[in-house]
Amino acid sequence: MAQNHEFELHNTTGRFGGLSNLLQAEFSRWRTWDWYIMAILWVSIISFSTIGMFLSSDSNVTDVVNVLGLMIGMFPVIAVVIIMQDEIVSHRETGTIAWLLSKPVTRPSFILSKLISNIVGVVVSMVILPGIVVYIEFVVFKGIVLSPIQYLLGFSLVAINLVFYLSLTLMLGTVFEQRGGIIAIPLALGLGYTLIMNLAAEIPIHPMSMFFPAGTDVSLFGSLILGTPLGSILPIISATLFIIVFILISLWKFNKEEF
């Protein structure tokens, strides 16, 4: 028995059997150099996209926040969709899903392990780390110390937005067997917002409307960071509800699929 001290007993029974083992495997991917590079890349992209505004004598804090909202609200979405479009399809193509499900692993555990690990990885590398660097830039270049609570609330919208597209792409992976639809629909929904922005401003249910100052001087993202009066919080509510729906559909559809 002493020779087996490296083995750990995990509960693999119940509806979420095998989840802890799957999470360990999924989180190990986020501790590779690929993801360290991803974090450095997004810190660089977001911080350098605003540094010109910080250095400009003509720009005020509202201008900087608006530019920051546009950058961090749109471009990380592309990366999230690219990351997630292969999460289900690649396992289906290689037969890994069938092999995993032959073990003491449940289908909900497989979906939730993909969801949880990628949410944590994306939020850390694309929201938290860039947010910290930009906060320091506010202090260094503008001499402004923003309220940490308000700043955190503003960046929580970035996390909600990315989780929206992450869960949407994961759901589409359970619906489509080819990558075309999986990647095209979220990108069209995200990047296509600029084409319908005036219309969407009238009914702000699109998550991107949290970052576009349509009809006002500052977006919902900017209002939270700067502590100014908030506009409609409908985008937050609708995005949260859609996330829940996407996750439920993913669990239902994956549970029905035959491998």
Describe this structure in words.
- The chain has 259 residues and is mostly helical.
- Helices cover 71% and strands 0% of the residues.
- The protein has one domain (30-256).
- It has helices at 19-29, 33-55, 61-84, 89-94, 96-101, 107-142, 148-175, 179-191, 197-202, 220-226, 234-256.
- Residues 1-10 have low confidence and may be disordered.
Search tags:
mainly alpha, 259 residues, 0% strand
Short description:
With 259 residues, the chain is mainly alpha-helical. It is built from eleven helices and no strands. It has one domain.
What's the helix and strand layout?
Blueprint (H helix, E strand, L loop, with lengths): L18 H11 L3 H23 L5 H24 L4 H6 L1 H6 L5 H36 L5 H28 L3 H13 L5 H6 L17 H7 L7 H23 L3
Overall structural class, as computed from helix and strand content, comes to mainly alpha
* SSE order: HHHHHHHHHHH
User: Count of helices?
Assistant: 11
Overall geometry comes to elongated
Q: Which sheet architecture does the biggest sheet show?
A: none
Helix content: over 70%
Strand content: under 5%
Count of individual beta strands: 0
- Distance N terminus to C terminus? 38 Å
Rounded mean pLDDT is 84
Low-confidence stretches: 1-10
Number of domains: 1
The Rg value, from CA coordinates, equals 20 Å
